[in-house]
Each structure stands twice: as C-alpha cells, then as structure tokens.
Design brief:
The complex is a heterodimer of chains A (219) and B (299). Chain A is α+β, with helices and mostly antiparallel strands. Chain A contains 6 helices and 9 strands. Classes of the chains: A alpha+beta (219), B mainly alpha (299).
Chain lengths: 219, 299
C-alpha cells in the first residue's frame, strides 16, 4: 500500500494562494476558515527586506494527535495513510482542535462538524492529484507515494534535504518541506501573519541575502 | 517570535469547560472524603451519606449539563458515552467515567433512601447479606471511579496545547489534591448545617483532614514547580504568567492567600466555631476551584 504524502518546495512558492482558492472551491470551504492556506514570514529591513511563503495544511501525521484525541472515533486513518474525519461520527467536542499542534482543524460554521484537509481523498482514490497540487503554478507541491523511490516525490526527497513543521511535536508529518532558508521554524502560528523579528540565517554557506533560488526562478 | 504562540487564534474550549473541571473536582472530592471520613453514629452516618451523595450527584449533573451546553446537543454527549471505538482518548474515558459515576450515585441514593426509611422505623442494622454487600461495594466502586475522574482532567489537558500547565508529571497529583480539598471543604460545610451540626466529632475530624490537606498542598505545589521543564517553551511561558504575569494576582491572592493562607490561620485557632469553619472551608473551596481553572486556562 502506498504511503501518500506531500512535498512542498518553499524555494518555488510565490504565495499566489492558488492552492488555497482551489481547496476552497473543491470543498466549498466557508469564509474565515481554511483547509489549506499560505502563511508568510518577513525578515530584514528595507532595502533588504524579504518575504517567505509557507503553504500549510493538515500534515496527515503518522502519529496523529487528533486521531488519538477523538473520543468518538470520528477521525480515522485510511489504508493509504490519509487521516480523514467521518463527519457523521463527529460530536463537535473540539478535542482534535486542542490536540493538533498545527491548527489544521476547524469547525465548519455551516455544517457544524470538524473538518480539515483530506489530501483530496475523493480525487486521489481516482488517481488524480489533490486540487491544491493541480492548481499550483510553480509546481512547488508534489504529491505521491513517499515510499516509492522512483516516483517524483521520492526522488526529490532523496535528492534534497527536507524538514517538517514543528518536528519537536513528534507527530511525524507526511507533509515535508524543502526549506533551505529555514523559514518554517520562524512561522508564528496564529493565522496569516508577518514576523519581522525572525532571523533566518539559511543553510551554512547561504547567509541571508546570498541565497540563490533554483535555476529559472527570479531571485 | 513567541515560541508559545497558539496554533489557533481562539482556544477551542472556553470558560464553560473550565467550570466543568471545577464541578468534576467537587463531585469526586465529596465522594472520596465521605468514603473515608464519616460519623460514628449509625443514624448520622446515613444522614451524612445522604447529603454528601446528593452533593456529588448534583455537582456531576451540573457538570454534565455544562458539557451538553458546550456540545449544544444532548445526543452529542450520548455519542461520546456510547462510542467505544477509541478507548485511547482521555475524553472518551472521561465520558464513560461520568456515566458510571452517575449510575453508581443513583444506585447509592436509592439504597440510602431505603436505609433512611428503615432507620426512621428504628431498624439500625443492615439486614440481609445482599444489602450488606451492596452497602460495601457501591461506595467502594464510587471511590475508585472518583479517583480516576479526579485525575482525568490532567490527562486530558496534557494532550492539548491549550493548557501547558498540565504538561507536568505532577499535574495529576494536583488535580487529585484540589478535588480532595474541594470535597472536604464542602463536607465540612455540610457538617456545620442542619441536623449534622450536632455532631461535633465529625466536624472536628473533617476540620483536621482539611487542615492536613491545606498544609500538604504547599509542598505539592512546590514539587509541581520543580517538575516544570523550563526548556518547554509553552510551559515556561504559562508558568511565568502564573507566577508574575497575567495570572499572578489571582494565583497569589486567591489560590495562595485565600485558598491556603486564610484557612491555615483560621481553622486551627477557631475550629469549634461553625461560622469560622464555614468561612475557612469556603476559602479552601474558592482557592482549590481557582487552581483547577488556572491549570485549564493559563497559557
């Protein structure tokens, strides 16, 4: 069985929110809540200011706190690893929200149930990519089997240093990032925000301001 | 950035759940103290068991009503009780503990109602082996369930990011000790009222137990402080809020001053005065309740 996951290359995300919009359309997500959004952090001062875009969504953790917290068993893991909410079993106790360190779960104000990213399970079951992946103009999102070394995501994970959001939470996310500027660790959590206090030295040898984007992308 | 920034702008749980944790503490503490401290006289025993069991029952019913209000529909609470698909969830276990305790309390109240009738008719002995067995097993089962129910909020909150103060090894002990403080305080107040007030020995024993718990709470708080991992950013931030931040005034004034200092000075010197005993017990009740609320809400 495939171990589905997503790789997000922060070097190529331009913060266009096409992923957020595609997700909103796909699931008719109400105003004010998100299954998938793009946060950002800023660093430096004019004329050296720089902004980094950070797409965030449910991490479909291997050790999912929401799944262990849910008292009614409404949150389940599918055989392919996707963590989904069976809405009929949700009693809106919000323990999953309190347990998730990523703030990835919201209460739908219209349906009155907990909801979150499903990795577009209805699409992936038909062999399609999630809506956010299809919508990304820079192809910064790659979806697939993390255990397939020949697949695109497997190759990219093998060829690049990757990281996850909040590794200290010990949740083993299936959403991994290529983040040479180490912007993820400076991401404040409460909504889309700017953090001008962040200091991002980047990888050794890539001091701030000297980072070179991948070939073909604007600096 | 602030390392303790929350994943969500608003905590998923509000004041209703904080009050619910206070009521659960009261319901469990009353049961536990009534199991261990009771009058010598058989008639007074029944009277005392009757009022303390009703107090535990009403507190737990009130807590359950708050849960239903928070969930918005009774069926949602029932789903949590009836679903056995995730017994690894502290909330699932908590709901079942509440249901079990409510059932046992109802059974015990029924037994006590019959016993009150028998005592009123002059029958002071427990006749029948089945009756004797029920009168020994039901209170024991209630005590066991109550210990679990007193500690479960700490286990529940330790799984969340909203209550970092519960992320310590000693948090469960504090939830148990605050439940005992609340229960003993209420039992002492009940022993000062109605026909129970004639039993001076009971009042003095409850006062002694309360004093012991109040004094014991001081090293327990100290040990809890020692168990705080200051490298855990959210916990360190919450602790600084508790000691000298947004929660400091409430903590030092209500928890330490009113909840511990006032009863520790009042109860030993004026222990025979019912008014002073009630004031001291009320102070303990306020302090212990607020301790539980602070552990829930401070972050």
């Amino acid at each position: 069985m495939a171990r589905l996951g997503m790789l997000i290359d922060l070097r190529t995300c331009i913060g266009c929110h096409a992923c957020s919009v595609a997700c909103k359309v796909e699931f008719d997500v109400p105003l004010g809540v998100f299954r998938d959004t793009v946060k950002y952090v800023e660093t430096g001062t004019y004329p050296q200011a720089k902004r980094f875009f950070l797409p965030v969504l449910c991490n479909h953790c291997e050790d999912a706190p929401c799944l262990k917290a849910c008292p009614t068993g409404a949150i389940v893991r599918l055989p392919n690893g996707e963590v989904v909410i069976n809405e009929g079993d949700c009693n809106v106790n919000r323990f999953c929200q309190a347990a998730c360190p990523y703030g990835a779960i919201y209460i739908d104000p219209e349906a009155h149930v907990a909801q979150k990213c499903t990795f577009c399970e209805h699409r992936t079951a038909q062999g399609l990519a999630p809506a956010c992946v299809d919508a990304c103009p820079t192809r910064c999102r790659i979806f697939g089997d993390l255990d397939d070394p020949a697949g695109e995501i497997g190759r990219k994970v093998r060829d690049n240093p990757t990281t996850v959001w909040k590794p200290e939470a010990g949740t083993q996310p299936r959403v991994v990032y290529i983040d040479p500027a180490r912007a993820l660790q400076h991401l404040a959590d409460d909504g889309v925000q700017v953090d001008t206090r962040a200091s991002m030295p980047g990888e050794p040898g890539l001091a701030y301001g000297q980072y070179t984007p991948p070939e073909g992308l604007p600096r | 950035m602030n390392p303790a920034v929350h994943p969500l702008l608003e905590a998923p749980w509000g004041a209703i759940i904080g009050v619910y944790f206070m009521l659960v503490g009261l319901a469990t503490g009353v049961t536990l103290v009534a199991y261990w401290v009771y009058p010598e006289d058989a008639r007074a025993q029944v009277r005392y068991a009757w009022v303390t069991t009703w107090m535990a029952f009403l507190s737990l019913v009130a807590g359950s009503v708050l849960l239903v209000v928070d969930l918005e529909q009774p069926a949602r609470f029932h789903l949590m009780v009836a679903s056995f698909s995730n017994l690894g969830s502290p909330m699932s276990i908590g709901a079942k503990l509440i249901a079990a305790k409510l059932f046992l309390l109802a059974v015990y109240l029924y037994l006590l109602a019959r016993r009150r009738g028998a005592v009123a008719a002059g029958d002071l002995s427990l006749t029948g082996s089945a009756t004797r067995a029920l009168f020994s097993t039901v209170p024991a089962a209630l005590a066991v369930v109550s210990v679990a129910l007193a500690v479960y909020p700490a286990v529940l909150l330790a799984r969340t990011w909203i209550s970092p103060l519960a992320h310590t090894p000693a948090a469960g002990v504090l939830f148990l000790s605050t439940a005992l403080l609340m229960g003993t305080a209420v039992a002492l107040m009940l022993a000062c009222l109605g026909r129970l007030r004639a039993d001076l020995a009971l009042r003095e024993r409850l006062r002694d137990v309360l004093l012991f718990l109040v004094v014991a709470q001081i090293p327990l708080l100290g040990l809890w402080l020692l168990s705080v991992d200051t490298n855990h950013a959210p916990l360190a931030t919450a602790l600084s809020h508790l000691i000298h931040g947004t929660g400091a005034a409430v903590f030092w004034l209500a928890v330490v001053g009113v909840g511990l200092g006032l009863p520790a000075s009042l109860l030993p010197s004026f222990g025979r005065s019912r008014a002073v005993a009630i004031c001291g017990a009320l102070a303990v009740l306020v302090g212990a309740s607020i301790t539980r609320y602070l552990f829930f809400s401070l972050s």
